[in-house]
Amino acid sequence: MARRQPSFPESVARDLAGRSVAHEAFFYEDPASLDAFVLDGARDGLSAGEVVVVMARPARLESLAAGRWPRAARLVPHREHREHREHREHGELVLMDAEAMLAAMLVDGRIEARAFAETVSRPLDALRARVGGAPVRVIHELGDILVVRRQHDAAIALAALWRHEVTRASARCLGAYALDAFVGSEAATALERLGRMHAAVRLAHQPDAERWPADYWALLARQRDRERHRLEAALAEAERRAQVGMLAVGLAHDLGNLLVPVLHQAEALASGVAEDAPRAADDVWRGVEQLAALVGAMMHVASPAPATTPVSLHKVAAIVLTVLRSKLRGVTVKLESEADLPPVAGHESSLLQVLLNLVQNAREAITGGGGTITVSIARCAAPAGGRGDWIRLSVTDTGSGMTAAQQARLFEPFYTTKPNGHGIGLASVRTLVEAMGGRIDVHSAPGRGTVVAVRLRAAAARG
Length: 463
Prior knowledge:
elongated, Heat Shock Protein 90, about 475 residues, 17 strands, 8-stranded mixed beta sheet, 5-stranded mixed beta sheet, alpha/beta, single chain, Rossmann fold, about 50% helix
């Protein structure tokens, strides 16, 4: 069903009554559109034998005067004091400094009507008298400068003065405004009010200007679309920053887990009480390697996710169990892996972090002596929505288990059931697993232990 266009507000209809159709607004979305607006308007006015007055920023005046744009080459005037003029067979071009004009018109952030008359009306009257009443076309950035400065009320007041001026002096006024300057609810309201001050509204990339009220609704719809995209982008950026922050805290948590066994073995070596010095030295070396790998992984956390690579889960499990050997004393540790398993599509540093956290949590769940931790790797069915071959990495403990309420909050950032816990480890685990396209789930019951299972797509099955 076609969307019905909203009825035109009576207040807008009253604004339109008796106004000159020569008062137009152009809303642009990039500097190139503003360049084209000024140049094309000046060219068309000169071709029609009009006196064209361009009130622009100094930089644009300089570029226009120097003919730095191909289409501006034939508009190049010579400099005469603060104004630039060119006498042409079919028209005259006058360039005026918009910023200097605003400085003369603004008093405490407000446009003074008397100052507008002195700065705009009187010079235009003198110009018309000098050229014998030739048609005058004004192309200005005055309102644009104001809205970019977030002085929307002043821009609206200026538009009202221009509206009166074009009627009084039979001139044509074309004003430019940056659409990006109308961000937020207050600015959106200002945009509506500003649009009503003009007899016609043109949008960049809309070559044939529609007339009221269709162009007014098109302007507001475009602004709403841009605001929605801006808010969506801001939300995505906020989520990304929150994720980076959580992963950073998670990294610090994991570094602490790795440092404990490394320092323990290093102290044993330094004091000469290590039971197996070569093995202890090897444990220290492996621990330092993994510390370096985690630090390296953090270097690209804030960047777009890198492409996954084939990773052997058996190798990852062997490294983690070796590094945590000293912390796993007092429990039985089993590593079970199916034969001829393909690698998974993932990031080795991320998978090391994942398994490091899961094994560490399993150890902390086992209180007192005894207990078993089993790390198993096997093929599994694809999850809902998944295709191809999948591999399941699970960590099972015979610890105290969890209630259903605890399981429901297990992956929440900063939620923990441990007296000295931070609630970061499992939250970062879920983030890392999902970043690799995997799934994670938990099965537990009080007194019956816990199984945490991670499912990942096999590297050879991309589909």
